[in-house]
């Protein structure tokens, strides 16, 4: 009889220990959702559908982390493929899941001039000054390296452009959008400038994608992976109005 009691005492702890192991194994794997197929530089990423747990540790692959269940919105400064890692802690058990987020590079393929200033207003002149006549227009695309301007593209001159000739369309070859000037939003670099070519004096700036007092709009169709942004000061009949069209390239 005593032998049976001892055996019962030994079996019961083993039974409870076995149950504890089964509870640990039953802890579900963590889960979360990245809503979009890809993002652009400086576009906010919002994590959704995070599974329940006692604790959370996030690593977004760009040097930033979080311990919230649903982390604050975050962004990426450079294109590429990043790994988002979530580790959850439940009943003393840690489990990890990883998912990839793609940050696209945008390449400009076309630039349009919809309107231009007819005087030297963009060169610091009087906005109400008289017209300088029909401009001989060319497009110059440039960026800055070590505080020096670097020309990426310069078109041929289109002579004696009138309002009736607008919009003017310039096809360019895969110019990367963004970078070069860290303090500016990426869509404002490189610089897309339209000039009036002059033989006997300095060329006159007539339109620009970064004009003081102007307004900007960005449109991206993620289904077609194409988009554009506009920068405008004034109206379609007067002022600086530039449209930059781009395509998306995924890493």
Defining key terms:
single chain, 251 residues, mainly beta, nine-stranded mixed beta sheet, four-stranded antiparallel beta sheet, 1 helix, elongated
Describe this structure as you would to a colleague.
Residues 5-24 have low confidence and may be disordered. The protein contains one helix and 13 strands; from the N terminus they run H-E-E-E-E-E-E-E-E-E-E-E-E-E. By secondary structure, it is mainly β. A hairpin with a 2-residue loop joins strand 4 (80-90) and strand 5. It has one helix at residues 2-25; strands spanning 39-40, 55-59, 65-66, 80-90, 93-115, 137-145, 148-154, 168-176, 191-196, 204-208, 215-221, 226-234, 239-249. The strands form two sheets. Strands 1, 2, 3, 4, 5, 8, 11, 12 and 13 form a nine-stranded mixed beta sheet that branches. The protein has a four-stranded antiparallel beta sheet with strand order 7-6-9-10, with no helix packed on it.
| Assembly status | single chain
What is the overall shape?
A: elongated
Can you give the mean pLDDT?
A: 87
Q: Tell me the distance between the termini.
A: 73 Å
User: With helices defined by DSSP (H or I, 4 residues minimum), what is the helix count?
Assistant: 1
Structural class, from helix and strand content? mainly beta
Share of helical residues? under 10%
Q: Count all strands and give the number.
A: 13
- Spans with pLDDT under 50 lasting ≥5 residues? 5-24
Supply Rg.
Answer: 30 Å
- Topology pattern, helix = H, strand = E: HEEEEEEEEEEEEE
Biggest sheet record: 9 strands, mixed
Work out the strand percent.
35-45%
